[in-house]
Amino acid sequence: MSAVSGKIGVGLIGAHDWAEKAHLPGYAAHERVHLAAICDVVPERARAMADRFGITTVYHDHHDLLADPAVQLVDVCTPTHTHLPLSLDAIAAGRHVLSEKPLATAAAPAFEAAAAAARQGVRTKLGFTFRYSPAIRQIKRWIEDGSLGEIFHIHGFEQNSQFLDPDFPLRQVSPDQPRDRLIPSSVVGYGSHLVDLMRWLGGEFASVAASMRNFVPERIVRGMTGRQRIPIEDGTVGLVEYASGTQGLLQSSYIAVGNYPGVEIRIYGSRGAAVARLISEFGVAESLHRAEADVVEFQPVRLGDEHFPPGTSLGTPWPELYYRNLIRHFVDEIVEDRSEECTFLDGARSQQIVDALVTAHFERRWVDLGGASA
Ligand SMILES: NC(=O)c1ccc[n+]([C@@H]2O[C@H](COP(=O)([O-])OP(=O)(O)OC[C@H]3O[C@@H](n4cnc5c(N)ncnc54)[C@H](O)[C@@H]3O)[C@@H](O)[C@H]2O)c1
After folding, report:
1. Helix (H) and strand (E) counts in the chain
2. Is the pTM of this model over 0.70?
3. Ligand 1 center from residue 266 Cα (angstroms)
4. What domains are there in the chain, each with its CATH number?
5. In whole angstroms, what is the distance from residue 207 CA to residue 370 CA?
6. Which residues contact ligand 1 via a Cβ below 6 A?
7. What is the CA radius of gyration of the chain?
8. Which 8-state DSSP code applies to residue 4?
9. Is the pLDDT of residue 371 over 70?
10. Structure confidence by residue, pLDDT tens digits, 340-355
């Protein structure tokens, strides 16, 4: 616990858009958190966010934040390529770590980071935002209590069309990326979320097949001048055979029309079915519907206040709603020594499945995931 009695001290690295919209409001709303320090390589960003959230200590080098005894939990909210090295440094410094996803762009180093955290005895959480949707957590309970029966099909879709416009800048394409073959992209950024949700709800994947395509041939890419002719994968469809026998279907897309965050999960079981739409529409963050084997018309389900983190509702913007829940879970898991969920190990397994989908596409075959069924 931090010097501020009874509270856990948090230090955040990466003081920009997503930190402001999602992470920092989550910590600020938790009564067991003391926002102890903030760090950004761009000093004015760290200072602005410190002023806004009442954080007294500002750093520009993450090593200084990691050496600060007031920090017990480190939050990594920086660009993708920095997640792994910053998280490893935080683990080596003996701090609990929340990292934005993806932890790494390959599975092996993500598994190694999970093992390093276990050796150090620190907790980890990966920023799989949508596990912390009240509707998704209710579906998880229905699966576990058996009220949907045996699960036959799980469908995960992502419709999120900001990149349908070729002039909407694409993030995070490395300038030296070879352009003579398809560059997996939506399946990495959005597919990793979907795969994690589908795995959390349905258990381990046994085998996958996939088809990936580039639909928009030229686009603006952040950091490059003018439209680039670049074969970005902007649509993937996949088939899943679960170890349990459940069948799965997934789609990740940059171009399927629909609003943020654009996640839809459908579960069909022997006793009932449920559909969660995590799509911000007309000021409402998400919806949940359920049907029964003997009453087949889907009915809306209204979840009570106890399903929402304190002070939030369906009218709360989705980044804040889900992240307040995610951070509340992580802090409470640490403080109350509760069992962990949504850890770096889950990030590594999701990465392994995304890698398998990419291999399935390029090699035009089913790819087995026997190794992920432990
Ligand atoms: N989970 C989700 O649903 C979700 C949604 C949006 C964004 N994200 C992820 O969150 C992360 C942050 O997103 P963003 O839009 O705020 O990114 P951003 O690039 O706008 O901001 C990142 C900040 O990190 C700082 N930074 C970079 N390297 C640093 C270092 N070594 N030490 C200290 N500061 C450093 C940059 O100066 C910048 O201010 C990204 O990985 C993004 O993919 C996740």
Report:
1. 11, 17
2. yes
3. 31
4. 8-122 (3.40.50.720), 131-314+343-373 (3.30.360.10)
5. 8
6. 13-19, 39-42, 45, 62, 77-80, 82, 100-101, 127, 129
7. 21
8. S
9. no
10. 999 999 999 999 999 9
